[in-house]
Amino acid sequence: MYQSFLIKYAEIAIKGKNRHLFEEALVGRLHRALKKVEGDFTVRREQGRIYVDAAEAMEDYDEVVDALGCVFGVVGICPVVLVPDEGFDRLAEEVIRFVGAEYPERRFTFKVSARRARKNYPLESMEINAKLGERILEAYPDTRVDVHAPEVMIYVEVRSEINIYSRVIPGPGGMPVGTNGKAMLLLSGGIDSPVAGFMVAKRGVTLEAVYFHAPPYTSERAKQKVVDLAKIISRYAGPIKLYVVNFTEIQLYIYEQCPHEELTIIMRRYMMRIAEHFAEKDKCLGLVTGESIGQVASQTMQSLAATDDVCTFPVYRPLIGFDKQEIIERSEQIGTYETSILPYEDCCTIFVAKHPVTKPSLHVIRSDERKLSERIDELFKEAVDTAEVLCVEA
Ligand code: ATP
Ligand code: MG
Q1: What secondary structure does DSSP assign to 103-129, as a single string?
Q2: Which of 186, 247, 325 to mutate to test the pocket of ligand 1 (most atoms within 8 A of CB)?
Q3: pTM more than 0.90
Q4: Which of 49, 95, 53 is nearest to 75 (CA)?
């Protein structure tokens, strides 16, 4: 019975002069999302509203709602019935039919909420509410009006056509991807970094990603897990360019030359440098990591400062104040958790020291890093030049 969806968006409606840019971006993202759904759809903008219309009426709309529910910027998806204005009696008939089909038990409390976007309509909103309420009560005597806590809301909006809808299925919110520049995500196979990527993409940022692996210490399956995670994020974030960097030689060299308790910090500094190299090349505006204060030795305030020390780009850490449990909950919601917990080895854990420094001093780290001066430039270049580039898309 449904053929159209009214798309609600909040934040992007308040962007003043830029509003049309955000709306166009949202329309673009909706189009993209609908490509994965069977059937023909059009997306149209009309009087500050966005509608998705299907070429044919649909019995069930779960697939459409799932696809639209991955589009950042969408606050609500409302399956809507659009009827021409052919007088109040026709409207009342349509509303009664709609309510009866939508809630077949016909036993509930309700409230009608009318809005007149077209002021030449002969009835005012309050009158429409009262009159439609009466008609519904007549048609379905087991229903009751409750204006304070209704079980069912019935929205009627008088526009060029009249919009009738009841359910508002929540969307992810945020802003359409592509409206806020591009960032380079350091994506590991863990729980945190996929969530961090999701959160930044939700603010409209296009993602690229870099993954460091250490063959033969880390397996092909560990790499595949990262590709799979990128694929899940790309459901929301769109296609992701993923750099896979062979980090083995650099890790071994650090292991040979530097104190073992500093290994993780120095390694992380090289990850940031390499990530920044690709970020700069691709015109990204920042780096993104899944770090949160104090989660592990390499994420104390001192360690984070030692990591930032080598970065010229801003480093965004959207999980900075989250507890692990909160991050886990997010990862379950976005669908990355099950993949993240698959037990493949991670390059960071392979040479990890028993007692890593938790309060690294910057000048000590900088001076120990000089022990790498002989070969590090050559290894850095090698790692960058041999990086594999994948385009990951859901
Ligand atoms: P995650 O669950 O995201 O792996 P973590 O709690 O295991 O995080 P660390 O291993 O200290 O924490 O990594 C901190 C951050 O560094 C990660 O969130 C990620 O952004 C980045 N990172 C760590 N290892 C890698 C890797 N192998 N490739 C790319 N980025 C990585
Ligand atoms: Mg990790």
Answers
A1: STT---EEEEEEEESSTTSSS-HHHHH
A2: 186
A3: yes
A4: 49
| pLDDT tens-digit readout, 329-364 | 999 999 999 999 998 777 666 677 778 889 999 999
Q: Which atom of ligand 1 is nearest to the CA of 289?
A: 20
In whole angstroms, what is the distance from residue 212 CA to residue 163 CA?
51
Return the residue whose CA atom lies nearest to atom 18 of ligand 1.
290
Query: Which tokens sit at 103?
Result: 């809630």
Among 142, 158, 204, smallest CA distance to 179 is for 204
Give the DSSP H or E segment for 211.
Answer: strand 206-213
What's the distance, Cα to Cα, between the start and end of the chain in Å? Answer: 30
Nearest ligand to the CA of 317 is: 1
Task: Report the alpha-carbon distance of residue 290 to residue 193 in Å, rounded.
Answer: 4
Q: For residue range 231-269, list pLDDT tens digits in order.
A: 999 999 999 999 999 999 999 999 999 999 999 999 999
Name the amino acid, one letter, at 64. V
The top-level CATH class assigned to 182-392 is: alpha beta
- Rounded to an integer, what distance in angstroms lies between the CA atom of residue 304 and that of residue 292? 9
Pocket test for ligand 1, best of 185, 187, 192 (most atoms within 8 A of CB): 192
| Ligand 1 atom with the shortest distance to the CA of 340 | 2
Residue ranges, CATH 3.30.2130.30, the chain: 2-170
Give the pLDDT score at 227.
98
Q: Any idea what the Cα angle at residue 176 is, between residues 282 and 312, rounded to 5°?
A: 35
Q: For residue 126, which phi and psi values (nearest 5 degrees)?
A: -60, -35
Under DSSP, the state recorded for 355 is S
Structure confidence at residue 348 (pLDDT): 66
User: What CATH number was assigned to the domain covering residues 2-170?
Assistant: 3.30.2130.30
Q: Which ligand is nearest to the CA of 186?
A: 1
Structure token digits, residue 19:
């509003």
Closest atom, ligand 1, to C-alpha of 299:
11
Question: 247-278: b or e for each residue (b if 16 or more CB lie within 10 Å)?
Answer: bbbbbebbeebbeebbbbbbbbbbbbbbbbbb
**Domain limits, CATH 3.40.50.620, in the chain:** 182-392
CA distance 341 to 229: 11
Q: CB of 220 within 8 A of CB of 235?
A: no
